[in-house]
Design brief:
Elements (H helix, E strand, L loop, with lengths): L6 H4 L7 H10 L4 H8 L14 H9 L4 E6 L2 H13 L7 E2 L4 H6 L1 H13 L7 E6 L1 H5 L10 E2 L2 E7 L8 H22 L14 E5 L5 H10 L5 E6 L5 H8 L2 E3 L6 H9 L3 E3 L5 H15 L4 H21 L5 E6 L4 H10 L3 E7 L8 H9 L3 E3 L4 H11 L3 E4 L1 H9 L4 E3 H5 L6 H16 L2 H10 L21 H17 L6
Parallel strand pairs: 1-2, 1-3, 3-5, 6-7, 6-8, 8-9, 10-11, 10-13, 11-12, 13-14
Antiparallel strand pairs: 4-5
Helix pairs in contact: 4-9, 9-11, 9-12, 13-14, 14-20, 15-16, 17-18
The protein binds iron/sulfur cluster (SF4).
Iron/sulfur cluster (SF4) binds next to α5.
Amino acid sequence: MSDAVTTEAAASCHGSSKTALREAATKAGSEAMERYAADYPVGPHDQPQSMCPAFGSLRVGLRMRRTATILSGSACCVYGLTFTSHFYGAKRTVGYVPFDSESLVTGKLFEDLRDAVHQIAKPADYDAVVVINLCVPTASGVPLRLLPKSIDGVRIIGIDVPGFGVPTHAEAKDVLAGAMLAYARQEAELGPVMAPRTGRSQVPTVTLLGEMFPVDPISIGRMLEPMGLAAGPVVPTREWRELYAALDSAVVAAIHPFYTASIREMQSAGRTIVGSAPVGRDGTEAWLEAIGQAYAVPRAKIDAAKNAILPAITGALAGMPIKGRITVSGYEGSELLVARLLVESGADVPYVGTACPKTPWSEPDRAWLEARGVRIQYRASLEQDLEAMRELAPDLAIGTTPVVQAAKERGLPSLYFTNLISARPLMGPAGAGSLAQVVMTAMANKGRMHEMKAFFEGVGTGASAGIWQDLPKDRDPELRQQQLVQLKKRAKSEEAIGC
Ligand code: SF4
């Protein structure tokens, strides 16, 4: 283990340069850094401003049956991560192995982690134990690869998920899903493995990559039926044994396009990957065609599948038209799909910002949207999302929390992407109807937003917001200006990490 990076230097999101931390992690033996750099390419921004990336991996582990998760990192990071996971309804305890400078640099932390894993890995309770190295242990090279691969049949999965290596929490989901698929693939290659709880499918299946609203896989299954196919498991899976079934599908649909490590495992198993998703009429038509061709389904059956669903989608889109200008930004990875559905519903969508990178699996969506004049910003920063909102003056801003907050300040209707858009169906006729309903309701609030803005007019903004006897004053604008210049200079030379 390396002591190249001390706790003090690395313990905060802004404590040291990302490049230095990456180098330290690589020197300390973390093999993950190079792989992450290739899997999750940065640029034009290296770190979109979203939550701690490790949340993605944590959430995937916490949602799986018979899976324990242990975090290894600074207490403040672990506090934030456990808080967020329980805010989002986790019903499972998060394990934590604390450390201090001494246990970190002497290697005692690794021994403590190994002890914790031995204590918890009971086959009666768990199929798998996930150990996640956060920023400091990754930069210090705590070698999770040296943990036992399994204990009494319980798989041990150790992953590094630092803010300086994994750009978004969406991609961190892929880090764990990919590690689990790699493990399960090796198991399947060595001999018979367990069937899914519901038994093996009698017809060929399509594995679905990406977390989606529970009704979406059911809708997709119905769309596939006329071709003699069925929806397979959704990855990240909810149980270990589903991983084998996911690997079993000859065709994998990259519904969310950022699952690079998972796709690598699928391709290593000889699977065909299909990009985009069945959203809207055009999206569904193209997707069914691509799936049918990937499975060499006869033309008549592909056409039958299309004929069975497309009129209903056209009807749903026409029945719930969306009128108005909408900007879309988010960090879930489904932003382009949502934009497609909005455009097909009649909305004017001039801008889509996604914190995720450009990948081959969203190319059909990029081409479709750009052909309709939509500007797409990959790895979008908050500043770009806000600038788009200001410049384009939409009737509705769909975005992350700070975008929604800025929209409210301007008296613009807004919807939080994660809680209000991701939490509803997108596929098939259900998707068209459901999205239009929430969007139109929000846009109808324009008058109320203006009334609210007028009501609060004159109560000040920023530091002077509120009712004051002595209004807080910007004491020294010059000093403030100097500080801003210094901060900008520092930011250039010293890149901040993580949150
Ligand atoms: S990104 Fe920030 S919160 Fe997350 S582990 Fe790193 S330092 Fe902690």
